[in-house]
Write a structure and sequence with these properties.
Blueprint lengths: L4 E2 L3 H13 L8 H17 L2 E6 L4 H9 L3 E3 L1 H10 L4 E5 L2 H10 L4 E3 L8 H4 L3 H9 L5 E5 L4 H6 L2 E3 L4 H10 L4 E4 L2 H11 L3 E4 L11 H10 L4 E4 L5 H5 L3 E2 L2 H10 L4 E5 L5 H7 L4 E4 L23 H10 L8 H20 L8
Helix pairs in contact: 2-15, 4-5
Bound molecules: 1,3-dihydroxyacetonephosphate and iron/sulfur cluster.
Amino acid sequence: MAQQAIEIPGQLESRIQSLAASAPTQPWLNNTEKELLKTEIKQLLKENNAQLVAHYYVDDDLQALAEETGGTVADSLEMANFGAQSDADMLVVCGVRFMGETSKMLSPEKTVLMPDLDATCSLDVGCPADEFAKFCAQHPDRTVLVYANTSAEVKAIADWVVTSGNALQIVRHLKEKGEKLIWAPDRHLGHWIQKETGIDMIRWQGHCIVHDEFKTFELQRLKKQHPKAKILVHPESPADVVDVADVVGSTKVLLGAVTSMPDKEFIVATDYGIFYKMQQMAPGKKLYIAPTGSKTQSCNSCAHCPWMAMNGLQNLRDCLKNRSGEVFVEEQVRIKALRSLERMLDFSRQAGLVKVAS
Ligand code: 13P
Ligand code: SF4
């Protein structure tokens, strides 16, 4: 069975590192400044019949605003589903670029804005569409499955898009049909899916700069300090970290674990932005962030995505006020990518993995 892996070139790695290092941080705001901005944003949302679609990794203030104003705070799958079913005229996506593009592709009639269009993702940058197309052309007998964390152009090449919230179910379905896969871009997620399902898969070797930093040795040391804590791991983490997990899954699965499991303490190996929602959903439980390898000044991940951190109250207000940061996707690309995206959403709705609007 093929389990070949494709190395990504060194210059892409350097580009990822330099983009992460140069991602701007948001200005510190005092409470009065925050309240003024929130009031203004609420007003602008009303005026534009707009909804906020926020990921669990963005700043607490943005997550709270999305909740208070009838938007959503969700994983990438539910963000796509929510946007597609929303009857707002405008969606403001607080997350990273691929999330904005996905919303636009599913709702071309809506205006889709983002606080900062440069908020990218190391998986997206590490999988250029032209290189990926060449690679797929060498394996025409394989079904092309890509992670949602990719550009619109890569999705246009794919047969299926998946997120960590539906990957196992979709791959099991494809395995039953006897299909062989090309997987891109996350190497660890691909490895985990392959191991869980036993499917024949060739993998691209992209990585998430945040989850790649979790380290087993340090994790086990923390576990010794908190022996009763259960370990929760996002599958973009390295295989040896996934191996010591009590629960492996998407952000939504990890949230579900904290609320449904009787345990009182959890070590969480994913972006610490998720703690806002975890604490809210399970207030009595103790959460510890899993240790990363980067403990120096040069750390530019440290369990927090530098690109998710580009979303703040000020640039959110600015994009609504100036109608800036609008997401556009070329129509030819959109039409092609829509097949794989709609396949994913249809499957997820039928499998009960996402909400279906009544
Ligand atoms: P989810 O699909 O679990 O929301 O994850 C998206 C992501 O970017 C994780 O790093
Ligand atoms: Fe991409 Fe990782 Fe950031 Fe998620 S946390 S958006 S996978 S870089």
